[in-house]
Design a protein that fits this description.
Elements lengths: L4 E3 L3 H19 L3 E4 L7 H10 L5 E4 L2 E2 L5 H14 L4 E6 L3 H6 L9 H15 L4 E4 L4 E5 L11 E5 L3 H10 L2 E4 L7 H14 L8 E10 L3 H16 L2 H24 L3 H6 L3 H7 E4 L1 H12 L5 E6 L10 H9 L3
Parallel strand pairs: 1-2, 1-12, 2-3, 3-5, 4-5, 5-8, 8-9, 9-10, 10-11, 10-12
Antiparallel strand pairs: 6-7
Helix pairs in contact: 1-13, 2-3, 3-5, 6-7
């Protein structure tokens, strides 16, 4: 059965009391998981703890925490703490992030090595099981460490953000789930094949494996401002080599080539305009409630176990976004 998640990075938008009202309605409406990202706004672990402590059925997941900004021991400790508050309702989503977030914003060494994810997951698995861990790897060295509190009754799941074939296969091999991003429903099957290859390498299947994907959604009467906002959000991703390769493989090669040429020429505004209607319709969901529900259902039928609504509101001149965010939330599940 397909579940529906909701990205909820809105604590600073609603304020504490308003945010908790929003979260309680999210739970009442039947969303399965509240996903919390982390870049430079709210702390994911703190926000997840707030949600977990004020709900009874809603699961919480980080989507995602940059792996390099915390050690595996700190990540395990944080996830175990939330898992004691909300047993069986916690997933720790991790990703390799970017040189800007890791290096420029946090002053740490950035690595795009998937081996760092593998090492970190190995250490965290041991700590979350209550084991004493010693590990000497390329990226991490820990000696004789064990969490002092008993392990949580149900260990948190570990979910990896993945885009390309190697990352997908690693997630299928070592993780409990994957978080996809900027993916059209028509290309989900290709990603699942790589997940299956990784699972096979580990001698397992994808039974019980979470396949989640962020889907940008704007429930709105006049769609054009939302389409423009979506194009502006996609454009910087399309200039990153890994995403550009992914978008080309998804069937958008002509648009990406034109966008990158404009971007390299310094024409940022022109680059955005090269994202055609088919790109925007493939990667986002925009329109009135019924239209959005119909398109979102394509993601639910694509092989995902959890499409995740990521509400977004076009900037139309500094208005209050809260009503628009609530409207999108209320359109599902």
């Amino acid at each position: 059965m397909t579940k529906t998640g909701l990205a909820c990075p809105f604590l600073h938008v609603f304020g504490a009391d308003g945010y908790l009202d929003f979260i309680r309605e999210v739970e009442t409406r039947g969303y399965h998981t509240a996903w919390i990202g982390e870049t430079a706004a709210s702390d994911a672990i703190a926000t997840m703890t707030l949600i977990a402590s004020r709900t009874t059925t809603l699961s919480v997941a980080s989507g995602v925490i940059p792996l390099q900004t915390r050690t595996p021991t700190v990540l395990a400790m944080g996830a175990a703490t939330i898992a004691r508050i909300a047993p069986g309702r916690v997933a720790l989503g991790l990703g390799l992030s970017s040189p800007v977030i890791v290096g420029d914003w946090n002053g740490l060494r950035y690595s795009s090595s998937l081996e760092q994810l593998r090492e970190a997951v190995h250490i965290m698995r041991g700590l979350l099981a209550g084991d004493r861990v010693t590990f000497d790897g390329k990226h991490y060295r820990v000696k004789n460490v064990r969490l002092l509190a008993p392990p949580p009754p149900t260990p948190p799941k570990i979910v990896l953000a993945a885009l390309g074939p190697r990352a997908l296969e690693l997630a299928g091999e070592i993780a409990d789930g994957v978080l996809l991003n900027w993916i059209a429903p028509e290309t989900v099957a290709s990603s699942i094949r790589h997940l299956e290859a990784g699972a096979k390498r580990a001698g397992r299947t994808l039974d019980g494996f979470e396949i989640a994907a962020f889907v940008r959604v704007s429930v709105i009467d006049e769609p054009e401002p939302a389409r423009q906002a979506l194009a502006r959000e996609i454009t910087p991703y399309a200039t990153v080599p890994s995403y550009a390769t992914f978008f080309r493989a998804s069937g958008y090669a002509a648009e990406i080539e034109a966008l990158q040429a404009a971007w390299k020429a310094g024409d940022r505004a022109g680059a955005v305009k090269h994202l055609s209607a088919r790109v925007l319709e493939g990667l986002g969901v925009i329109g009135r409630e019924d239209d959005c529900r119909r398109r979102f259902a394509d993601f639910a039928r694509s092989g995902l176990t959890m499409p995740v609504v990521v509400p977004f509101v076009p900037d139309t001149g500094g208005g209050d976004p809260r009503a628009a965010l609530v409207r999108t939330m209320r359109a599902f599940p």
